[in-house]
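Form 7-S
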Amino acid sequence: MKSKLNQKLKKEKNSRLKTRRGVADVISTMMLMAVTITGASTLTYFMNDAFVTGNLGTISTLDSSSLNLLLLAYDTRDSFDLLTLSEVDNLTNSYLCRVSCAANPDTVPSLGGTEFIVLQIQNNGLNSIFLEKVTIAGSTYPWDSSTSGTILDLPGGEFPGDGMFSILSTGNNSNLQSESIEIKNGQIVNVLIKLDSSGPDIQLNKGILVQFNTGGMHLVEFLIDSGDAR
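Output:
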């Protein structure tokens, strides 16, 4: 009788142990699934957020080593000889003149024309890039082909027209305007922009979004301060 009782107790004990092991296995599996689902959800969120907000296209602008185009310097002052370019002058009127100078936009600022911005950039890539367009504060500027191969001469009219830009060499030929929009590997150039006469005047000490279109999938973007020289 005692032997049968012991066998019965042993079976009940083994049954309880099996039940506990089964519950433990289920809990472990559920915890593993929860961790997997949480990780997948987190990864999906960040990937979707990157694609939706364009982070994948703009993160590179935070790391200059990964850029094909570097912004080395800029001059957006109401001043004279912008970025040391002789006779590239703006008026001291506390704003960058655009629509207020619409009456005679293709002339120099001293004769009532729109004002200038100068950007110095470098091709940081392995191959040539082609600067197709530059966007300043929402206005898009094409290259002025009439400046091709000419010496910058503001009194003589050899400078980009209203709402256009030219590309200038740096160094010994700093007044020579490029024959094309090609910027070779490692080359540093100055981009001279004649502000358009249709957009609103740009108030000083305001941020300006600058975008470069070099033919790639994404624009290269920078935020600069109007009225500053960097």
